[in-house]
Structure formats: structure tokens, C-alpha cells
């Protein structure tokens, strides 16, 4: 009887061992690194006054490029889709007891976010003193960041308690003002991620039956309708913008994509698709993505600077491209399309960035404030030169700090949680 390879036996570009004993899909790991880098550059540009530059240069190519760079919603929503895929893979692959699963997920998130949160507390006074003093300190994004700093200090105890439990994304502003981004702006999405971790095994178990799957689809659609209307048309005073109901559709797309990919992988492994390897999936995904992105590209090029009407379509288009590439390296890892994908998405640089992507996503935010404070003697040099130097120095410092954080905090916490779980 012919042996059918498991998911962990697939192409080198596709999976590798992780600090946890589970397959990690290389392409998605590389993509996460690129997305974290996108978020980092976007925040650096905002600290450099890009928000005002974008509004002042709405008709220029530079203004359009800066707008895309600082629009962090796209990479964060793609993170959520990837998380839905990866967590479904993990839950189905390990089949751990819920207590073990959630303990390991907690230890995956908590140590690194705690270190960066403490750093955010330490630099918070600089946030309210340094930012207004910048030559471009009247930028509205910087003004808002300086405004938030004393609010976070005023409710410091409450914010610390909320972040320790990672439920800061559930507390409405009417109870705790500005809780979702307190001391560490990017940490709002960590609470959203944690909320997903809590419910994911239950949702996956329910979806095993057709009736349960239909119920989940209906629930996701209902939440999408209700909370989209809340976000677009009503006051958010009683709703935290990090509440998972605002983003549940993206996790759902990721989870559904995993089960489609798993079925495709099994069909390829068993030879059910017939002789020869399917080709053209990466190219087809790119073509579909291009045509889906045309309205957004035209809207940004000839219209105003807003992605809101096209946001979901843009995110879905990019995911279709990535999913097509993933299916291609699954079906024909030795083909030319898969080799091109591997050279880009699975190269050493991409995998290095993917490995430290979580730390990059968190630590760059307080580091930017520190670097602005230390660079005060250079504020007077020509602004383009300062921007270039800051982006280079900020990227290098972030990559260094993230590497240290991964090596001495993230990876040891993952190994410790694994050893504790295995001993039970």
C-alpha cells in the first residue's frame, strides 16, 4: 500500500520544525515577517509626521505611497486571516485538551507583550514630552499620541490589570478610556488574538457537523452585519474596537482556508487529482488578486485617500494570492511557480523576519519614542535626510531588539510551556 505523506512531509518551502513540536508553514511564516515589517515602517513614518504629509500631498505619487505605507489595517487584518489558518492547523494537528492548548497559547503571547508593555510604561513620559517638541510635532497623529499618554498614566493601575489578563480589548471606553492601546499601541490586536484563541477550539469542534458549520456561518454573517454598522454609523463609546466581533470574518476566512487546503493536500498526496501536478495556481491567484485590487488602486490613484470602501476586498485579494501560492507549492513543489514563491517567501531573510515577527510587531512602537528622544541633536538636519536615517536606524534597532526578545523571552517561554504540558 502506497504511503501518503502527512502535512509535515510536504515540500521544504512549506513546513519546518518550530520551537513547538508542530509543523510551521514556511510561506505563511515569511509573509508574517513582511507584514510585521510593513506595520513597523508605517508606524515609523507616522512618528516622522507622515500623516500630515499624506494629507498635504494627496495628489502626489509620494503622498499615495506614504498613505499605503502607514495604512496598518491591511497587514493587521491579514495577520488575523493567517492566525485563523494556523490555529486551525494547530488544533487539528495536536488535538490537545483545552486547558493545555490555552496555556500554551497564553505563554505564546504573554511574555513578549509583557516585556514590551513594561517598556511602553517606561517611555510613556517621553511620549507626552518629546512628541510635541518635534519640528513636525503639530502633525495630528503625533498630537493624538501626546494626548493619550497622560490618559494612560491616569488609569495606569486599571490598564496594567487589563493587560495582564489580555482582556483590554473587551473593556468599553465608557468604563476605561483608551484601554485598547494603553502604553503599547499595537497590543490592541493581541487582545483580539487572545479572544480568538479562547473560542477557536470550540468553533472548530462545532463545525465538524454540517449543522454546526451552518450555524457558525450564520453567526459570522450576523456579527459582520451588526458590528460593521456599529463601526460605520454609530458611536463607539460603549464598544471596544478590539472586540473580536468586529474582525471575526477574517479569522473565519483563515480557518475555512485551512480546511480547503488540507483537503487539497490530501487529494494531491493520494493521487486523486490524476497524473501530473496542477499548475498555474499562483499565477491564477495573482490574476484574481489584481482584478479585485483594481477598484482600490484606481480609487487611491484618482480619488481620495481612503481605503474604507475597499478594505475588505483588498485584504481578501491579497489572501487569495497567498493562498494560490500555498496551494501551488503543495501541489508541485519542484515547479517553476513554486520555486519562485520559495525564493521570495521562504528565503532565509523572510524566515528570519517571520521568526521574530511577533517581537517586531510589538517592540518597534516604544523603540520609536526612545530613538526620537536620543536623536534630538539631529532634528535640525534636512527632513528627508532625517527620515532616511531614522528608518534605517529604527529598523536595525528593532530587528536587534526583536531577535534578543525572541531568543531570551519568546522561545524559552514556548519551550517551558511545552515541557510543562508534556509532563502532565
Task: Describe the fold and architecture.
The protein is 72% helix and 1% strand. By secondary structure, the protein is an all-alpha fold. The chain has one domain. Strands 1-2 form a two-stranded antiparallel sheet. A hairpin with a 5-residue loop joins strand 1 and strand 2. The longest helix has 40 residues. It starts with 14 loop residues before the first strand and ends with a helix.
Order of helix and strand elements from N to C terminus: EEHHHHHHHHHHHHHHHH
Radius of gyration: 22 Å
Please give the share of residues in helix. Answer: over 70%
The geometry reads as globular
- Please indicate the count of domains: 1
What oligomeric state do these chains adopt? Answer: single chain
Strand proportion, as a percent range, falls in under 5%
Number of continuous helical runs: 16
Spatial order of strands in the largest sheet: 1-2
Structural class: mainly alpha
Mean pLDDT: 86
Amino acid at each position: 500500500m502506497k504511503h501518503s505523506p502527512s502535512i509535515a512531509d510536504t515540500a521544504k518551502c512549506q513546513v519546518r520544525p518550530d520551537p513547538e513540536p508542530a509543523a510551521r508553514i514556511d510561506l505563511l511564516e515569511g509573509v508574517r515577517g513582511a507584514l510585521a515589517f510593513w506595520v513597523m515602517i508605517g508606524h515609523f513614518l507616522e512618528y516622522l509626521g507622515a500623516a500630515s504629509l499624506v494629507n498635504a500631498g494627496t495628489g502626489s505619487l509620494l503622498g499615495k505611497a506614504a498613505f499605503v505605507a502607514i495604512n496598518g489595517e491591511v497587514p493587521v487584518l491579514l495577520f488575523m486571516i493567517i492566525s485563523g489558518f494556523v490555529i486551525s492547523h494547530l488544533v487539528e494537528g495536536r488535538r490537545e485538551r483545552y486547558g493545555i492548548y490555552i496555556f500554551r497559547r497564553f505563554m505564546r503571547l504573554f511574555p513578549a507583550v509583557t516585556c514590551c508593555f513594561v517598556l511602553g510604561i517606561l517611555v510613556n513620559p517621553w511620549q507626552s514630552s518629546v512628541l510635541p517638541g518635534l519640528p513636525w510635532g503639530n502633525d495630528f497623529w503625533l498630537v493624538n499620541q501626546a494626548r493619550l499618554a497622560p490618559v494612560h498614566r491616569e488609569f495606569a493601575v486599571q490598564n496594567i490589570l487589563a493587560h495582564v489578563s489580555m482582556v483590554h480589548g473587551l473593556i468599553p471606553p465608557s468604563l476605561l478610556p483608551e484601554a485598547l492601546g494603553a502604553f503599547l499601541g499595537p497590543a490592541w490586536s493581541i487582545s483580539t488574538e487572545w479572544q480568538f484563541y479562547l473560542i477557536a477550539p470550540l468553533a472548530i469542534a462545532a463545525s465538524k457537523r454540517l449543522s454546526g458549520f451552518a450555524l457558525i456561518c450564520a453567526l459570522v454573517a450576523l456579527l459582520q452585519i451588526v458590528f460593521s454598522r456599529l463601526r460605520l454609523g454609530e458611536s463607539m463609546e460603549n464598544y471596544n474596537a478590539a472586540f473580536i466581533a468586529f474582525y471575526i470574518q477574517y479569522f473565519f476566512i483563515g480557518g475555512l482556508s485551512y480546511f480547503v487546503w488540507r483537503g487539497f493536500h490530501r487529494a494531491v498526496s493520494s493521487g486523486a487529482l490524476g497524473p501530473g501536478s496542477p499548475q498555474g495556481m499562483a499565477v491564477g491567484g495573482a490574476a484574481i488578486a489584481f482584478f479585485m485590487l483594481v477598484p482600490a488602486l484606481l480609487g487611491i490613484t484618482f480619488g481620495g485617500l481612503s481605503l474604507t470602501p475597499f478594505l475588505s476586498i483588498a485584504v481578501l485579494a491579497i489572501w487569495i494570492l497567498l493562498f494560490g501560492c500555498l496551494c501551488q507549492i503543495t501541489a508541485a513543489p519542484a515547479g517553476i511557480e513554486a520555486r519562485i514563491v520559495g525564493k521570495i517567501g521562504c528565503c532565509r531573510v523572510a524566515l528570519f523576519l517571520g521568526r521574530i515577527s511577533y517581537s517586531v510587531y510589538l517592540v518597534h512602537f516604544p523603540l520609536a519614542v526612545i530613538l526620537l528622544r536620543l536623536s534630538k541633536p539631529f532634528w535640525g538636519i534636512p527632513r528627508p535626510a532625517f527620515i532616511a536615517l531614522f528608518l534605517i536606524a529604527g529598523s536595525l534597532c528593532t530587528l536587534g531588539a526583536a531577535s534578543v526578545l525572541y531568543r531570551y523571552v519568546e522561545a524559552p517561554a514556548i519551550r517551558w510551556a511545552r515541557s510543562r504540558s508534556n509532563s502532565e
